[in-house]
């Protein structure tokens, strides 16, 4: 039965399993894990990015079902990560170019000292209960993602801080006194990590009833039927799929490799679009010298593809 189900899943969503994961934990030995973790991933053909820091682990990786299983088993064998959870989706082709394991100061960069979700954090809300919470007139719903992510999809009625990076979020909260006008704050992000850290910050700022979507948008799109959904648009993901939709099916967005923003078919048809060089979102922000440099990079990418290689700059 397992083999039949596995084959069915492959046919429906693609041969590659994509695992998004994070876990907050006190992890002072994080530097020592980098080399064995990288070696294991490379030996199993796994690609993606994993971040290690004193506060835990974060990242997304892709590979065969067996190879991802091996990596997850290795991580959960570490005492600090025994409770690690992950979210699965599928990809029709390998969505990453290479494997990276990076050492960081934070696994998600907020830039505020002593914010520890293991010490204080908001209340988890399961996807099945999320609609009721965000439909409550006593709730302010906040998207903790950045502007290029919110541009292609949000929850109905959510406040969009329009931040460029997560580092801007704390100051946005401090500048918005209106957030105190309602008793409940509900926060969400792609996979759960940013809103978990954001709820810890909000609690430190004196907000009492703070909630966050467990598993993030990805878990909501996986579990909540489209006909019941309050999600509008697509969800940006940090790999070559660019976006996913309900049921975690691959979306229709592409990536502008000049500005790294998601673009639609209409934007690709724009006279400002040139593959690897510009799109309507970034054309006027770049100089002709920039575009000349990007054209050369794109030329090298195409040459590498013809030789069956992956170009690092691509």
Automatic annotation (TrEMBL):
Q: List the SUPFAM superfamilies hit by this protein, alphabetically.
A: Rhodanese/Cell cycle control phosphatase
SMART domains in UniProt = RHOD
Q: Recite the UniProt keywords alphabetically.
A: Oxidoreductase, Transferase, tRNA processing
**Reactions this protein catalyses:** uridine(34) in tRNA + AH2 + O2 = 5-hydroxyuridine(34) in tRNA + A + H2O
CDD domains the UniProt entry points to: RHOD_YceA (cd01518)
Its EC number(s): 1.14.-.-
Q: Determine if Oxidoreductase is one of this entry's keywords.
A: yes
Pfam families, per database record: Rhodanese, UPF0176_N
Q: Which domain of life is it from?
A: Bacteria
Which GO molecular function, any one, fits this protein according to its record? oxidoreductase activity, acting on paired donors, with incorporation or reduction of molecular oxygen
**What GO biological process terms does the UniProt entry carry, in alphabetical order?**
tRNA modification
Which InterPro entries does the UniProt record give?
Rhodanese-like_dom, Rhodanese-like_dom_sf, TrhO, TRHO_N
Segments forming domain Rhodanese:
135-229
Task performed by this protein: Catalyzes oxygen-dependent 5-hydroxyuridine (ho5U) modification at position 34 in tRNAs.
Which PANTHER family does this one have? RHODANESE-LIKE DOMAIN-CONTAINING PROTEIN 7-RELATED (PTHR43268:SF3), THIOSULFATE SULFURTRANSFERASE/RHODANESE-LIKE DOMAIN-CONTAINING PROTEIN 2 (PTHR43268)
Record family assignment? Belongs to the TrhO family.
Q: What is this protein called?
A: tRNA uridine(34) hydroxylase
């Amino acid at each position: 039965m397992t083999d039949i189900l596995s084959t069915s899943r492959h046919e429906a969503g693609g041969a590659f399993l994509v695992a998004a994961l994070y876990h907050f934990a006190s992890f002072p030995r994080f530097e020592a894990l980098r080399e064995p973790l990288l070696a294991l991933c490379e030996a199993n053909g796994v690609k993606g990015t994993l971040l290690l820091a004193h506060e835990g682990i974060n990242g997304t990786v892709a590979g065969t079902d067996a190879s991802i299983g091996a990596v997850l088993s290795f991580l959960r064998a570490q005492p600090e990560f025994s409770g690690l959870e992950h979210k699965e989706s599928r990809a029709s082709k390998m969505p990453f170019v290479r494997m990276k394991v990076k050492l960081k100061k934070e696994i998600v960069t907020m830039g505020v000292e002593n914010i520890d979700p293991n010490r204080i954090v908001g209340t988890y809300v399961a996807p099945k209960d999320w609609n009721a919470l965000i439909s409550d007139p006593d709730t302010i719903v906040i998207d903790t993602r950045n502007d290029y992510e919110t541009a292609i999809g949000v929850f109905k009625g959510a406040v969009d801080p329009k931040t460029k990076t997560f580092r801007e979020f704390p100051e946005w909260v401090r500048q918005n006194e209106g957030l105190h006008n309602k008793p409940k704050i509900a926060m969400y992000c792609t996979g759960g990590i940013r809103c978990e850290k954001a709820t810890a910050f909000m609690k430190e700022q004196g907000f009492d009833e703070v909630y966050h979507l467990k598993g993030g948008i990805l878990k909501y799109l996986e579990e909540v039927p489209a006909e019941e959904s309050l999600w509008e648009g697509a969800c940006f993901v940090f790999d070559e799929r660019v976006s996913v939709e309900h049921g975690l099916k691959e979306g229709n967005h592409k990536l502008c490799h000049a500005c790294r923003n998601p673009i639609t078919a209409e934007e690709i048809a724009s006279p400002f679009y040139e593959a690897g060089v510009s799109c309507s979102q970034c054309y006027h922000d770049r100089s002709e010298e920039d575009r000349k440099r990007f054209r050369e990079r794109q030329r090298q990418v195409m040459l590498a593809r013809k030789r069956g290689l992956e170009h690092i700059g691509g």
